[in-house]
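The protein record quoted in full:
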Amino acid sequence: MARVRRKLGKGKHYDALRRENASLPDGMLARLVNQKYAVVGEHSAAKLCHWAGESLRGRGECYKSKFYGISSHRCLQCTPVLQFCNHACVFCWRMMPERDKYGDVKGFAWGEPEEIADGLVNAQKTLVAGFGGNPEVKRTLYLEALSPKHVALSLTGEPTMYPKMDRLLSDFHARGMTTFVVTNGTLPEAVARWKVLPTQFYVSMVAPNEKVYKRFIRPSTPGLWKKYLRTLEMMPEIGKKTRTVLRMTIARGVNDGDLEDYAAQIRLAQPHYVEVKSMVFVGGARSPERGLALESMLKMEEISKIAEELAQMTGYKLVDFHAPSRVALLCRDGKTEKERKITSVR
């Protein structure tokens, strides 16, 4: 029997959000509701990570847990910039507003950090509430999940566009929460103004050179590659104040070549860690116009080989793997390897 597709944008939850949020286009808000995003204010959202649910059920932890000691069931996956990104990566799985797909954002104003932090933490409590009656979930884990201890500002959009990011980080840190910020590196001037840095500062390394960048990352304006390189130049200094990571997302036949160019970026940025990861053929990455397929994903052994080659080129150490996520971890040296598990807010 053919599967009945539920019409988007119908229901009490959508109607309540529509009354509270004036800026999101109707089609975008409807799809966010359908994909179980918890929208907070005009431009923020949380979404329960797959691994948070797996952790609650005792079925394993994500790579952030294996590499850095983050408890998956206490991790708040969120964004303060829901509807804006200056990249349109062909392999992006997220809820990404493609060019002119949903219409214009209207009546928009940036929210205050304290309100966003409160809203996101409360949203996470709502997202995990359904696990309270699940017989697979231990009561202790459920109660812990109601009090998240880590914030991954990585869900969708470009987080450095939020002009009050350092105050948002400060608010989360004051709550005893560790923070990861994942940026595409195209707003170095914004990062330079931050008075507070995240516990771990990520920059997405998604192209070996500008030619690949323009074709497959599809920047919205000229000059973003140069800004990305400027962020890499800033990373050694940032690394004196907090932990730094270059995160690769690789798709077969897209950006999986020219490893020496990637190695040059690693040498320029000198991050504490490099994550070498395959793209995942889910969500937006499955859109036919992207030109990808299941075979676009690299196998774990292929990721391991690339990681080994990069280690040889840069002097980094290949120290760990998370096969379910198809990701490998490189550490800059023995010291960063020894200190990779996060135990407190920095």
